[in-house]
Amino acid sequence: MTPGAMAGVLLQVVLLIAVAPYVVGVMRQVRAxxxxxxxxxxxxxxxDLRKQLAKEAISPEGSSWVFTAAPVVLLASTLVIAAVGPFxxxxxxxxxxxxxxxxxxxxxxxTVALALAGLDTGTAFGGMGASREITVAALAEPTILLVGFAxxxxxxxxNLAAIVDRIQDNPAQVLSxxxxxxxxxxxxxxxxxxxxxxxDNPSTHLELTMIHEAMVLEYSGRDLATIELAAALRLTxxxxxxxxxxxxxxxxxxxxxxxxxxxxxxxxxxxxxxAVALATAEVFMxxxxxxxxxxxxxxxxxxxxxxxxxxxxxx
Amino acid sequence: xxxxxRKILTTGRVAQPAPARASDQAADPGVLRGSVQIRxxxxxxxxxxxxxxxxxFGPVYDAERYGARLVASPRHADVLLVTGPVTRNxxxxxRKAFEATPAxxxxxxxxxxxxxxxxxxxxxxVVGTVGDIVPVDVEIRGCPPEPDVIVAALRDLTGR
Amino acid sequence: xxxxxxxxxxxxxxxxxxxxxxxxLWRRELSAIVRLLIxxxxxxxxxxxxxxxERDSIxxxxxxxxxxxxxxLLIPGILRRVLRDSAEAxxxxxLINVTASILTAAVLTLVAYGISRPLVRLAPSIETQAxxxxxxxxxxxxxxxxxxxxxxxxxxxxxxLDNGIATTAFLLTGGVPGVVELAVSxxxxxxxxxLQVLAARVRLTFGGTDIDELRDLHD
Amino acid sequence: xxxxxxxxxxxxxxxxxxxxxxxPLAAAATAAVxxxxxxxxxxxxxxxxxxxATGITAATRTVDGTALTIGNWLRVDALTALMLIVIGxxxxxxxxxxxxxxxxxxxxGHIDDTGAHLYSVLVPLFLAAMVLAVLANNLGLLWxxxxxxxxxxxxxxxxxxxxxxxxxxxxxxxxxSVGIALAYLGTVLVHYAAQQAGVAEHGSLDWTQLSAHxxxxxxxxxxxxxxxxxxxxxxxxxxxxLHSWLPDAHSQAPAPVSALxxxxxxxxxxxxxxxxxxxxIASISPEFVRALLLTIALASLLLAASLLIxxxxxxxxxxxxxxxxxxxxxxxxxxxxxxxxxxxxxxIVGHGISKATLFCGAGEILSRTGTTSIAExxxxxxxxxxxxxxxxxxxxxxxxxxxxSLFFSEVGLVRAGLTAGxxxxxxxxxxxLLMVFVAIAVKASGMLFGEPATQPRPTVRTLAALPFATxxxxxxxxxVVAMLGIVDWPLGPLLHSASxxxxxx
Amino acid sequence: xxxxxxxxxxxxxxxxxxAVGAALTGPRVRAVVAGVSTSVCGAxxxxxxxxxxxxxxxxxxxxxxxPLGTAAVAGDALSxxxxxxxxxxxxxxxxxSIGYTSPGSPLDHGPGxxxxxxxxxxxxxxxxxxxxxxxxxGNVTTFLVLxxxxxxxxxxxxxxxxxxxPQVRTAAAWYASMTHAGFVAILLALVLxxxxxxxxxxxxxxxxxxxxxxxxxxxIFLLALVGFGSKAGIVPLHVWLPRAHPEAPSHVSALxxxxxxxxxxxxxxxxxxxxxxxxxxxxWVLVLAAGAVSALYGVLQASVAVDLKxxxxxxxxxNMGLIxxxxxxxxxxxxxxDRPLATLLLAASVLHxxxHTGFKTLLFxxxxxxxxxxxxxxxxxxxxxxxxxxxxxxxxxxxxxxxxALPPGxxxxxxxxxxxxLIHSLPAAGSPSVLIAVAMPLAVGVVALTAGxxxxxxxxxxxxxxxxxxxxxxxxxxxESPVSMRAAMALAATGCAALAIVPAIVGxxxxxxxxxxxxxxxxxxxxxxxTLQLTRIAGSMSPLLIxxxxxxxxxxxxxxxxxxxxxxxxxxxxxxxxxxTRLDPRMEYTATSFAEPLTRVFDxxxxxxxxxxxxxxxxxxxxxxSVQYRQKVADRVExxxxxPLLGAATGWGxxxxxxxxxxxxxxxxxxxxxxxxxLVVVGVTS
Lengths: 315, 160, 219, 505, 686
What we know:
The complex is a heteropentamer of chains A (315), B (160), C (219), D (505) and E (686).
Chain B: H1 2-11, E1 36-42, H2 48-56, E2 68-70, E3 79-83, E4 86-87, H3 88-100, E5 106-110, H4 112-116, E6 126-128, H5 130-133, E7 138-140, H6 147-158
Helix pairs in contact in B: 2-6
Chain C: H1 3-26, H2 30-55, H3 58-85, H4 98-115, H5 117-122, H6 126-129, H7 131-147, H8 151-173, H9 178-206
Chain D: E1 7-8, H1 11-34, H2 38-62, E2 67-70, E3 74-76, H3 78-108, H4 113-135, H5 139-157, H6 163-196, H7 207-212, H8 219-236, H9 245-252, H10 255-283, H11 286-309, H12 314-335, H13 338-369, H14 380-383, H15 385-398, H16 405-419, H17 423-448, H18 468-486, H19 492-502
Parallel strand pairs in D: 1-2
Antiparallel strand pairs in D: 2-3
Helix pairs in contact in D: 1-2, 1-4, 2-3, 2-4, 3-4, 3-10, 3-13, 3-18, 3-19, 4-5, 4-10, 5-6, 5-10, 6-8, 6-9, 8-10, 8-11, 9-10, 9-12, 10-12, 10-13, 11-12, 11-17, 12-13, 12-16, 12-17, 13-15, 13-16, 13-18, 13-19, 15-17, 15-18, 16-17, 16-18
């Protein structure tokens, strides 16, 4: 592992951490503007984080080490993804550590950690949130893996860098039916996994409609900060993955500083565009009833199957 | 969807321009600088204050632009926004909400009733003012207080 | 004895055996049935005797005497005692009525003819030509067992069956070897004795000898 | 065909042939004179022991293919020796259990002194009749001996003199007499065929002669004869269509008698068929023999399986299981290869001993709970661990679980059947066996396990530990069946030479 | 006598001695004797298995045993893996049983009953012995004997607590019946095989298989599939499994669910790949389909189960389903000639079997630990064990992580491998066959959905069962288990962890197993130490580095938080109950409510029966006194398949019973009719 490559990885992680709250901020700001409001500014999530870090952390009585460990696991798993994914460069030395499936599993690990924490609080809301979150995650899993199948079957590898590299080499593949179908399917899943509308409403105050929020109702202070950062980071990572898997241009293929710089800039741009697009789309949507969510996910599963089939039959 | 889009385009920004802030009267917001999460506790209000709070966070007054945000849990909150005289049944919940809020925390008593029980003073179901139950940091007077006033008080807390 | 007379007498006796079996199906009085059994036993002895004369066999004469003693005297005697002990003089309504029974007997006789073809074919002779009668007696005896309800009638059915076998044995081979014959006769006698004792117990225990009433044991 | 046999007939051998016959007769005489008492019981056990001992001695003499004969009438070869061992072994278990049984029955007043006397005379006679059947070289004698068992056991089945016992006895005697009469007709036809084939007059019913000249016998007559013999001896073996006496008689007879009937009487009838089969396959087409036996056996198996499903009475359950096992043995006979015959014989041994222990166990359960209803016996393992455990192990043996030898005989049967190209029959057999297994397992689990919910009916004896005289033979019997399943040497060679006598290569 | 023989025989001698010893000693000594002898027997197996995998062979014929057959043993690398697995589980279960069965637990229902009874303790080492020997069997007879002995001994163990609960009896009856049905199928398959090739030994079968006609080979395979599938708990033959495993004492559940069930896989591999040498493609499509149905159905049932041990039982069906999917796919590719891919899939299956053994042992032992100290299996009444039984909770958590197939658990590694195999079914050049193009995406979908629901299942099991506050008095009074139980669980957890972090340690084993199937497999499937590297396929993953990454990130986070938090203390406060009264444990989410969304989503498949009883107040029907809600999710496959079968059998039995109506005339009529029929047939056919 060369120092340059190490620096690349470090740069990627730091960049992602730095960008993540802004992504949330951008989305909130876009929504605010579209709703006719002024908005708190894209830096607001960072301000919130800074404040929460300085606040007291409270553990509810009857909870255990699981409650305190969950935010750390959540953030740590996301950081690992941030380190191994080809976000700004495909020449990462860590690429061999985890492939697409491992990344998906790590995301799930974070979800599980938070769900366990939700259950650990012993409140009805915690349990409710955990139950719903896990249900959604369980149903989203097949789509992700099928999309992974569709993407990796063509390049005969499930390693993310290999997929990105291959598409960069054959730009025509971007518009192949398999790719388009997979992109749609994955988009739905990204929305579900990130807890965005129409699956979950991140700004709801009504406990009965909450999924993610219900699980973290008991968290405060630095625990909450960790969770919010992790949530933002997960959103960013998902958007980044989506962007690089389907629109891989600009991703650095070497670890040279200039390539990394361009890669980082392109990455920020892509994620910003996606965040704006997602936020805009959310304005037009209402939250789905919880029991309509599986229908949505089943739809994405169908797209996934079609993607795989077309990559078999139309390749 | 198209109609909604057209609506967005034609309506534009409805938020009033931010009024200037009398910076001298504000204490240092400390940890809460730039970001205040608020848990609203209705301790027995007639819902007049609630209407005003709602409009303070609506598009026109848009308190959120100053970094204030309503949240669902006192655990997430820095500030308790308490309205109304404290009724017998809400006394304990108020205390619990205060207890549940992580330090450093502020209590904002909204409306005259929170200050002196207003017309409800002496009612059989009224325990007392908010200040009798929890330490109040900021009081917003008015029956009900206008959104402007509420927003101004919140701006003092965030320092924006 | 001339061959013609032998044949006529033999066939007469054999025919009598078949007739007596069928008549058992027809008659309702138990005493009449026992009498028919005596007739049948006697006819069997006649058959044995005819064979003895034909073959000049002393052994068969002894067998004939034994048959008379056992089947015409001893066993009917036992049955008479059974009859005397019980107050039942008549067979109750058989499970298949008399007309149908006799028709069935006719069918059974035909079947017997059919199935005993190989026996006749192996060694066609005067005696073996009559073997189907033995088979018919076996089947009719079995039929009596199936359709007649009284304990006594069942014993009679068994005896008819046994007589049929003995007749077959006489006609086919002039009887089985002596020791075996003796053992067989003893066995038949013992079984009749056992059945007699059992019939008496049945009467005492159940107050009648309608065997079809004995249905406590079932699945 | 029969392998070349050397025939031995020294004085010692003569004793060997006659002793098993005389010993039970002597015991019967003793019992007749002394009436019922402990000594009589011990003498009877001794007689059974002598049968076993001579069986084993005979086995060592005949395992090399030797046959010991006395005149044309009696003959001991490996097959006979094996049957003697079964009779002796089951006899010991049954007579030992008989001690306790009679005492109990007298104590409770179910029988009187005369009854006990009758019992103690008839049981050794029963043994003697069966010994005679397996010793007989003359087929007529074989028939008469088997017929004699009916006569002897008639009063044993009806020993209790209850209504049900009487009913069972009547059915038993009538049906078996009819059946065995058919076998007699078959014997007569064989005699006829032998005469026509020129087999010497005095030897025309000798098995030795007949099996040597089997090819000369007329196939037409022999087909008829064999069919009659199968139906006739099949009646005594509890096979369809004249099987119906069996559940009634087995469930009403005193437990030791049921043990003897199920453990050895039925196999003795099968033994007769085994002997006749040797003649039949040589004189008529082996396919016919196989088809007939297989049809009857599978029908019996189907019947047993069907009636076990809804069985409510554990003694009848054991009775139907006997039909099932005889059907299995007949399937082995039908297949007829040496492996199949060896398996069938091993099955006879295993089934005989384990069924005897089970009937004795069932008798104990009956005497302790006062009911034969499966539904009314609960939590046996908790209430009487030794009895329940023995019953459970016996059932396991019966269901063909290892290490009991029935497992191996069943596997052997399947192997032989599949090798002989009878795949469909084996499949049907195994499916029916599975039905039997499920039926018995479900019923047994109800009887054996769980906490007894209600107090048992008041009975004379409480569910105390088993008396030693009953427990010892049961446990020893199960031990032997298990031992036969684990090691091959005690029976292996004997089974092999017996299968040489009765099996086709 | 080589090491294999020494280890096996030594272990067996110990086990027999232990059985005798346990039968003769008092309850306290008995527990130790049985446990130690079981462990020693297991250790023998483990040693022998490792030696076999290492390349030693062991074959022998013992004359004079087993009537009508011969006793023969023959071990190869395939045997070795399974012997070692069984041995390892036995070592752990043996240690565990010392504490579990020693007197003084709430499960103790008095002397002589339950898992500590004389019979059960004596049979335990025997059960292990039979299991250890099953994969070593060298001919059909020996295999059948050992197989059935294994069933019998396990049946005795399942019945251990028959006095405590009536369900034990039902479970045992189901188990006995299903396992016997399976045995019948195996018996027919193997004996048909051996009778057709004219030899009893596996070596003879292997040689003779090629000459058998295809239909016969297919028949043999199908029968074997049914037989071994029923042992492996494959749907629809699984019905015994979720009944028997919960009712058995927990160390027995572990032995059954982790070790015995795996022998079903051994059977399929031995017969399908080894003796029959691969075979038709449609066989393996069938295996794949059966595996897929099992995986999905098992995990669905597990995800809605509320009985902890039943949940684990269904999870066994799920995991065996996944394993069968791998085996099926391997078979398909082998039949298509893509042997390297077949090798990979086979390795994935075997690895998953190994991993499943590891975590299922741990989970059942954990469940047993809970059961022993609370008497509860119902998740709806558990909770709060994390503070009362911290070690059990932590160790169960390790198992749950693995069973949920999440990194850094060991289950993840093998599922990853399985997915890699399935995903790379697209040939590098040319278009794939339609079957593969249809089957493989569906298979991936099934694996994925299974994985997702598996996560839900184990979040529920761990989160509801161990976390939060106790939902019952019994759970509130729980105390940590005895040291031997904890040690055993720790041992199992160590095994899981080792497999999770450096799966490469079993790489050589998998390669050797693959080498035992020369007609199916080709080459070594995977290589690498720290990073798992597939041979032909560009796939790599490093569980160790992922774990390191997680640790490093966690460390950074914790340190950062410490610094940023400026030493602010963590405060304990009452749970936020929206200002209401103190939250009652009854207000907590239960396992039933946790699974409710899934129950709803899959209600077409699960068909839950719900029952709500509202009792109104006597004075006014507007006042409600109580509301009772009951939900039962029956096993729908069982309900659809078995009751009709049993009903038909019962009806038939009744019909047959009516035939025997007691009339002697009727009985004689049977005879007469039978006689005439037989005689007429004889006459006609002459």
